[in-house]
Amino acid sequence: MSGLTVGIIGMGFMGSVHARHYRDNGRVDRLLVATPVEQEQKIARERFGAEVFSDYRSMIQQGQPQAVSICTPNFDHYEIASWLMQEAPGIAILIEKPLGVNDQQVAKLTKLAAGHQSPILVGHSLRFAGAYIKGRELLRQNAIGKPCYLEARYKWFKDFSKFPAWKRDPELSGGGFLMQSGLHMLDLFVWYADSPVVEVTGHAEDLYFKDFPVEDTFFGTVRFANGVAAHLVGSSATKGFIDYGIEVYGERGAIKVESVAVPGGLDIDNHSVSLFTEESAYSPSGALVNPSAPKSDFWKDEINHFVSCVLDGTAPIVTPADAKIVMDVCFALYKSAALGGKTIRL
Ligand SMILES: NC(=O)c1ccc[n+]([C@@H]2O[C@H](COP(=O)([O-])OP(=O)(O)OC[C@H]3O[C@@H](n4cnc5c(N)ncnc54)[C@H](O)[C@@H]3O)[C@@H](O)[C@H]2O)c1
Mapped to the 3 state alphabet, what secondary structure does the chain carry? Predict the structure, then answer.
């Protein structure tokens, strides 16, 4: 099978990223886009050579794609994904994170997904980033011994006043910093710790964007059954410096993966890995080393992986069941925050 027809639902920031990488993939020969917004239809046509529809159902029925990307606002993921899973079992689905905006949506979608006949991938993009893959590989190879503490930092000023309105509305977005940005770090915690989550505590803060009803800062602790504790320091209220990455401390050393800040923002595909270890196989002199990790374009790699899931039968790296674990942690952290930092057991 070759010459894939792919449909993209939603043509805002992330829809354009998906469109660019499908267009450049080489195995996709027809691109369809569904968006009700005329300006976005024009972009889809002119920039990406897409056939355009104003509604996703007509795109599916008339365009007959074999695969779709859901790149709509968070609140729409559930309606669109559940419709596809029930009405179009032969269509592969790439659903952007988050899987849903509340625990009922996520539970229902995970259940429907288990019966879907085609691949489903959830857009937890850091699992495609070379340096984060390398960090986890080192951990799995026992380069620092048994892990005990993870710390993720996501400090990156993002101007909420310039966001699309749905991102500032908790009903439509499901939440502020944690749901929209910190989710990537919760995903790293779950992926790195590789153990069931047992309890969480969280604190949401409005430190800078006090006029919006979603939090701009979140501090969270996640405890795993294997004894690992993980702490998130996350904020969009941090003008001036960007600090983005994860540190992993083990019995015999530590791994740090961090993304590189550049003037005006973060070089999202440029990350470095540092390793301090007492294991001589990795560092004969005991000095800090920087294991090489490929400079990856993780959104591109994610799209290429999805195409391979559809055309080659490759198993999706992030399934709805994987995403549900992360979403359960996210909802539990919000619950803890709403109860003044009460410990929530999972
Ligand atoms: N994986 C990542 O790193 C990453 C990064 C950014 C955003 N995202 C996710 O991507 C999704 C979209 O975010 P965004 O920043 O592109 O938002 P956006 O507001 O820029 O784009 C959303 C688009 O959906 C369109 N839309 C709304 N309802 C629609 C419908 N029913 N049918 C078709 N189109 C519809 C809007 O017109 C708009 O084009 C979000 O769920 C977000 O969490 C993921």
Answer: CCCEEEEEECCCHHHHHHHHHHHHHCCEEEEEEECCCHHHHHHHHHHHCCEEECCHHHHHHHHCCCEEEECCCHHHHHHHHHHHHHHCCCCEEEEECCCCCCHHHHHHHHHHHHCCCCCEEEECHHHHCHHHHHHHHHHHCCCCCCEEEEEEEEECCCCHHHCCHHHHCHHHHCCCHHHHHHHHHHHHHHHHHCCCEEEEEEEEECCCCCCCCCCCEEEEEEEECCCCEEEEEEECCCCCCCEEEEEEEECCEEEEEEEEEECCEEEEEEEEEEEEECCCCCCCCCCCECCCCCCCCHHHHHHHHHHHHHHHCCCCCCCHHHHHHHHHHHHHHHHHHHCCCCCEEC
